[in-house]
Description:
Blueprint: E1 2-8, H1 13-31, E2 36-44, E3 47-55, H2 62-76, H3 80-86, E4 98-104, H4 108-111, E5 122-128, H5 139-152, E6 162-168, E7 171-178, H6 187-195, E8 204-207, E9 223-224, H7 229-232, H8 256-272, E10 276-282, E11 288-295, E12 300-307, H9 310-316, H10 324-329, H11 339-342
Parallel strand pairs: 3-4, 7-8
Antiparallel strand pairs: 1-6, 2-3, 2-9, 5-10, 6-7, 10-11, 11-12
Helix pairs in contact: 1-2
Amino acid sequence: MIRFSEYVSLGHPDKVADYISQYLLDRYIERDPNTRYAVEVQIKGWHVSLGGEVTSRHKMTVDEIRSHVRAAVNNIGYTRAYMDKWGTDNTICGDLLDIDLYIGQQSPDIAQGLSSGWGDQGIFFGYYAYGSDTCGLSPEHALAKELCHDLFHSGIGGLDIKTQVVMDDNRVVKIIVAIPLLDEADTAKVESLVRRHKGCGKCEVIVNGTGRYVQHSSIADCGTTGRKLAVDFYGGACRIGGGSPWTKDGSKADLTLNLYARELAKEAARNCQCDVFVSLACCIGKKQIEFSICDAADNIIAEGIEETDPAELRRHYKLDTPIYASMCRWGLFGRHQLDKVWER
C-alpha cells in the first residue's frame, strides 16, 4: 500500500502566520492567564494583517502588538542578517514589516458560555500508531517531520522548507524536498543529509523539482493561519477537524480537545495494542462531549457521552501558561513536541 505525507518548516509562510498568532497569545497569557483570544494572521510580502478578538485584563497598545509581531518573525530566523544574505527581493526581515490590526473584543454571547462549558462547538480527531518507534505517528509523517526538522537546523539552505515522503509497504520509495539554495551545488549536501536517515539510503530523492528555489518566505507565497492542519496533526493518516489549533486560547476547544483526543487514542492504543482513532464533538456552553474510539478497521472500542471540565483540561495541558509558540514550532505531536509536556 502506497502512503504519503508532508511537512513544512516554521519558515513556511503559513507557519509564520501561525507562529505570529501564538507568539502574541503568549505575551497576553504572561500577563493574564485568563485571556480569551482568537486572532487570524495573513502575511504577504512585507505586509502583515491581524484580525480577530481579544479579551484580556492586559491592555496591549498597538505599538506593543506590532513590536511582538516583528519579534516573532525575527525569532523564526527572518532577521536583518538573514535578509542581507539572501537579498530583499528573496526574503523578509521581521524588523521591516508593515503591520495592520483589525482586533476587537470577544462577543458577549460567546463569553457567557465559558463559565458553564466549552467556548465553541466543533469536531476533533485523535490518532495513535501502536508499537512504532515514531512517537505514535505514522512512519511516513514521522519521517517527513524528522527530515524537515534536520534540514531547518542544518544551515545548508534557507528557512522555508517542505519535505514530502512516499512509502510503499513501509519502504521509503521517494523523498521530495523544497529548500531555498543560493548555490545549486548545495543540492548534493541536501541529498546526502536525506540519505543518512534510516530507510532513505536507496530511495529516489528530488531536491527542488524546478531546479531553482531562491525567492521564498512571504515574498514568494502568501501565508495564512490554519492552512497546514495536516502537517500539524497526523499527515494523511487521520481525519482532521474544522478548527486550527494555532489561533485560539485553550477555552475554544480547537487546541484543548485535539490534545485530549490524542491522549485518549494513546491510552486506548496501549490497552488494546493496536492503532486507534478517536472522534470527539462538543457544544458551546456545555461540558458534555460525544466520543467514539475505533481501531484501524473501524471496529468500535468504546463510545458514548462524557462529562468534561474544560478548565481542568486546560490546566492539565498547561494552556494557562505561555507555551503556545513553542507548540507551534513543530506541530502538536511527536518526538520534538508536546508528548513531552503531558505524557504521564
